[in-house]
Amino acid sequence: MSLQPANNEHPSTTRPVVTLPRLLAKKDSGQPITVLTAYDATNARQLDAAGVDILLVGDSLAMTILGHPNTLSVTMDEMLHHVKAVRRGTEKALLVADMPFLSVTLGEDEACRNAGRMVQEGGAVAVKVEGASPTVCAVIRRLVSMGIPVMGHLGLTPQAIHTLGGFKVQGKTPVQAAQLLRDALVLQACGVFSVVLELVPTEVAEIITQALSIPTIGIGAGLQCDGQVLVIDDILGRYTQLSPRFVRKYADMATETQQAVTEYCNDVTSKTFPNAAESFTLDESMKETVLSAMRSVLDESNLSSSRQLAGAS
Ligand code: KIV
User: Fold this and answer.
1) CA-based R_g, the chain, Å
2) Residue of 33, 39, 56, 151 to mutate, ligand 1, most atoms within 8 A of C-beta
């Protein structure tokens, strides 16, 4: 890491700060909304500078960052830690914090306190909540009335993975598709500002999108949604444990990282790193004085160790 601050401390883009009314305006004018997950400040800074509308600190970080097999294990405190980091790297994008498993369903007061922490301590603008059960809807109504914007999440809701029986497309039968539409309308009535539709057939997502006045954000839900979200580690090819069909990979960072690290190890073991330009030397004017001060220390320590040796014998 350089000792000089890089000249790109916080890329000041000229775009305006993304707000809820701007997102609604995008839906109304047919401009697609871009959403990506972000989990740390450095990444957030890059995504923000690239012009992403919404940065979502998704509970997917349980898998991509923390190494769990699903999203159920991540806690409120762990989520909050990452929300704070992403806040530090975000200037223009709208920051949404995912509410993790159990943070919403164990009582309305606790849910409101948890969501409040995401905003007050984490600096999130909004929170995302999975599902549309009566319990969840009651919480969403309270959060909205408290001034906390809420993003809904329907279709494949990963926190219900055990109930759903795996990462499967949702809404394929008439009963399921009708229920999805009903749930989307209920969430809209509860006051959510947008809804994520995950792993839903394109036709179903299209009808829901047309039925709602708020934006739908698709993930594996086709082109007709008002916006798209993907997991940053998936599009950069950094998370390789799963490769869902709906992901488009724009880079292969897992391979690139491994290649770079192999080269680094080779350079260290072959003693070609660091070179002169990557090292620091003493000023010529000070060199002799510094070296002589150090020689004195060596002499003193040689003297004291030979005394110790003499004392021991
Ligand atoms: O946790 C997450 O990353 C998400 C998105 C994929 C929508 O919920």
Assistant:
1) 26
2) 56
- Residue nearest (by alpha carbon) to ligand 1 atom 5: 58
Q: How far, in Å, are 58, 110, 219 from residue 153 at the CA level?
A: 11, 20, 10
Show the ligand 1 pocket: residues with CB < 6 angstroms: 37, 56, 58-60, 98, 196, 219, 229, 231
Looking at residue 276, what DSSP letter applies? G
Neighbours of 43 (CB within 10 A): 19
Q: Specify the pairing of strand 194-198 against strand 94-98.
A: unpaired
Q: What is the full per-residue pLDDT of the chain (313 aa) written as tens digits?
A: 445 555 444 444 589 999 999 999 999 999 999 999 999 999 999 999 999 999 999 999 999 999 999 999 999 999 999 999 999 999 999 999 999 999 999 999 999 999 999 999 999 999 999 999 999 999 999 999 999 999 999 999 999 999 999 889 999 999 999 999 999 999 999 999 999 999 999 999 999 999 999 999 999 999 999 999 999 999 999 999 988 999 999 999 999 999 999 999 999 999 999 999 999 999 999 999 999 999 999 999 998 887 787 876 6
Handedness of CA 231, 234, 238, 243 (dihedral sign): positive
> Domain coordinates of the chain in residue numbers?
20-249, 252-280, 284-313
Q: How far is the CA of 74 from the centre of ligand 1 (A)?
A: 13
Q: Considering only the top CATH level, what class is 20-249?
A: alpha beta
Identify the residue whose C-alpha is closest to ligand 1 atom 2. 58
DSSP string, 90-123: -SSSEEEEEPPTTSSSS-HHHHHHHHHHHHHTT-
Tell me, in angstroms, the distance from the centre of ligand 1 to residue 145's CA: 24
Prediction pTM value: 0.92
36 Cα: distance to centroid of ligand 1 (angstroms):
9
Q: How many other C-beta atoms are found inside a 10 Å radius of the C-beta of residue 74?
A: 23
